[in-house]
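Exercise 3.2. Students should predict the tertiary structure of the chain below and write it as structure tokens, then compare their answer with the key that follows.

Predict this chain's 3D structure.
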Amino acid sequence: MEKQGEVKLIGMWASPFVLRVKVVLNIKGIPYELLEEQLPFSKSQLLLDSNPVHKKVPVLLHDGKPVCEL
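Answer key:
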């Protein structure tokens, strides 16, 4: 079996966009770690480094690299 990379999802519980990503990851059976943001009060350095242009969630990290929107 192929080794999967580490997947992390930076998000907020109330975001419908984060919920969409969570649903797809669960349907596909991809294990992931959810990193909760305390938006709009503060943004972590990881979020700012991973999405420097928009500074918004969700951000999907695969092996520490952000996956860009297409």
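Discussion points: The longest strand covers residues 7-11. Helices lie at 16-28, 45-50.
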